[in-house]
Amino acid sequence: MGGATDVLNGDALCPECNLKKGGSPMAEATPDLREWQHEARERYQSRNGGVGQNFLVVATPGAGKTTFALQIAEDLMSQRVVTNVVVIVPTAHLKQQWSKAAHLRGIQLDDKFVNRNGAVGSDFDGVVATYQAVASEPLLWRRLCARPTLVIFDEIHHAGEGDNLAWGPALKQAFEPAARRLLLSGTPFRSDAKPIPFVEYHDGRAVHGYNYDYGMALADGGVVRPAVFPAMDGRSVWRRAGEFEETSISLAETDEKTVPPALRAALDPTKDWIPSVLLEANNALSLAREDTPDAAGLVVASDQNAARAYAAILERITGERPAVAVSDEPAASDLITAFEKATSRWIVAVQMVAEGVDIPRLAVGVFATRVRTQMYFIQVVGRFVRMRGLDDETTARVFIPSIEPLLSYARDIEKTVDAVLADQEKRVRDLQESGEEFGEPPAPFREIEVIGSSAATHHATIASGTSITTEEKLRAEALLSRAGTAIAKHTTPETVALILRMAGQDSPLPSPRQSEPTTVPLSTRKQELKGLIHRKVGKLSYATSRPHNHIHGDMNRQLNNTITTAPLDSLRKRLEMLDRWLEEAS
Fold it and tell me: Residue 288 CA to chain centroid, in angstroms?
């Protein structure tokens, strides 16, 4: 009413008018949102007119789609645009995850609701259910949207329209009356190319309201980790039913016709290939746990029998029984939740941990499934790239069979990583030199008889968007032989070859030049330097098989400070030191 700010001198406003006060009251009220979430929220608010509005947000795994969606729910509920929230998810485990996240923001969602209940309790703000539940009774869900409702579709690409696709038409029937529809996806396309309900298309491509891809998240920092892909080769042997002649082929030599039986033979738990890959992956996990004691690994299997067999192999390797998350287990969701908070090494799953499930301590993966679609591959990789904080130095490692198209998918991801890290280094170098003082799963091949598979061998390590050639590997082996004990005994020829490739791709530093004084704050410049140092430490750790903390310890002793307390000049010295060590490692 004028004068001092005091509750007795206040003017009562309705929620909508209150939110209109000031320049950006919503943004000021939620400082915890990431920059992309602020931008997406502003874009949503600029398009918030009209009943039944659809808004598609495409964001990389780990970017914070859930947080963004719940913020939109808060906004719409406070404005009285909606009084009810319905969240639809692909798996039962995600119901509990969404309910917990919503509770922390003051939104109460019933994750125990089943269709036979008929109605949601009056003390809930809404409900979270699966696509399957909606498909079984779409008219019930249409009735539950009688009052103004926001429907949030998590991973909307699971629903499709077309022959034999029940979810798409059911969703349209159920949620056509909804006041608002918010669509979330990390992969806004389907392997069968069928349209996704409520998504607008232009020239066959989904039209998004906001897009935040892996490259953008990596460039922003603090959101996703880089990832490398050890590609494992080996021979597979099989025989078709009714034939005496055996077929023997290397995974790296397979084509579209021979990949399915070769992959089936390689993934057979009674043969040699998959046990040797699991052993290699467990060694990588042991190295990761030297820096991060609770780091964990995930094996994605083709079916439940394979999952249990892989778990038995890992138990023999580690002496510790892995968690096994399969849909037939009634307590599978509780098991995943318990694993997320535990310090145990391995979890084996079929599809329950492939999408949406958040286990940030995952650092090593084994892609041991016959599914070869790009959408599924991206979803699995997404389980490993979520960062645990700005100081997280982990480089995720996902072991894959050396077959196409998996190699191509891995190269695409790594090209993005390389481009982003190159931009980061150029930005930091520029500051330093400017003079500044500061496919769907293939059908089972039951008509073939698996004869055997060899132990896995490294075909390549996809870590720079390309594969290591045979010549490069031979050169690395020769260097290892000449070096003798001067190089760590666990260093593999593939590791040396990869570092040689990296060194060969390093471009010369640009010559010093004059530039206008920068207005970038000291804290920002130091943070960028620290980020680049972390990446270089990860690169050196991979090259030398030394834990990150050992490398940091060497620099701390030589410079008499830590990366946390180091001044700008000392951070630059750390970068120079790391570059020298990387050159020596090559």
Answer: 18
Which residue, among 165, 191, 167, has the nearest Cα to 375 in the 3D structure? Answer: 191
DSSP helix/strand/coil, 112: coil
CB 512 within 8 A of CB 569: no
Q: Identify the CA nearest to 347 among candidates 59, 93, 67.
A: 93
Beta strands 109-110 and 126-130 are parallel
Cβ(178)–Cβ(53) below 8 Å: no
C-alpha angle 112/72/45, rounded to 5°? 155
Tokens (6 digits) for 43: 């874009």
Average pLDDT over residues 537-541: 82
Q: Rounded CA gap, 379 and 404, in Å?
A: 17
Beta bridge partners of 300: 349, 367
- Say yes or no: do domains 12-212 and 222-462 share a fold: yes
Site of tokens 């590791």: 495
Question: What pTM was estimated for this model as a whole?
Answer: 0.58
What is the pLDDT, as a whole number, of residue 436?
Answer: 38
Residue boundaries of the structural domains of the chain: 12-212, 222-462
Q: State yes or no: pLDDT of 488 exceeds 60.
A: no
Out of 88-97, 514-523, 567-576, which region has the weakest mean confidence (pLDDT)? 514-523
Better pLDDT: 58 or 502: 58
Rg (CA), the chain: 26
CATH of 12-212, one of 1.20.210.10, 3.40.640.10, 3.40.50.300, 3.20.20.10: 3.40.50.300
Which residues, 6+ apart, have CB-to-CB distance to 179 below 8 Å?
A: 51, 52, 81, 82, 148, 149, 150
**pLDDT tens-digit map of 208-258:** 888 887 777 666 666 778 788 888 999 999 988 777 888 999 998 999 899
- Answer whether 97's CB lies under 8 Å from 356's CB: yes
Amino acid at 201: Y
303, two tokens:
């079916």
Q: Are 70 and 105 in contact (CB under 8 A)?
A: yes
Of the candidates 255, 481, 283, the residue with the CA atom closest to the CA atom of residue 366: 283
Task: Domain 222-462: give its CATH code.
Answer: 3.40.50.300
Q: What is the average pLDDT across 37-64?
A: 80
Q: What is the DSSP letter of 394?
A: -
DSSP strands (E only) in 242-395? 247-250, 296-301, 323-325, 346-349, 362-368
